[in-house]
Design goal:
Elements (H helix, E strand, L loop, with lengths): L16 E5 L5 E7 L2 E6 L1 E5 L5 E5 L9 H10 L1
Antiparallel strand pairs: 1-4, 2-3, 4-5
């Protein structure tokens, strides 16, 4: 995964940003094959000055939809 560096809050200009994990009941899920769901935990970059969620992301998006499957999906179109 490409590293994204955020140094300032786009809302208030604050520079006190923290990395958090969203609660255990939240995450990113994809249904790839009928009833098999693939989940990844969701993380967020939060501004401690204004409380805005500046970025939401999962650490390993490749587990949600591998490149091989994406290529096969595009071939079908």
């Amino acid at each position: 995964m490409k590293e994204v560096k955020i140094e300032k809050c786009p809302f208030c200009g604050g520079e006190d940003l923290i990395e958090t994990r969203v609660s255990a009941y939240s995450g990113v899920s994809i249904n790839r094959r009928g009833d098999i769901w693939h989940d990844q935990p969701l993380f967020a970059t939060v501004c401690r000055d204004c409380g805005s969620v500046v970025r939401s992301y999962c650490l390993d998006p490749e587990k949600l939809f591998p490149k091989k499957e994406r290529k096969n999906q595009q071939d079908k179109l």
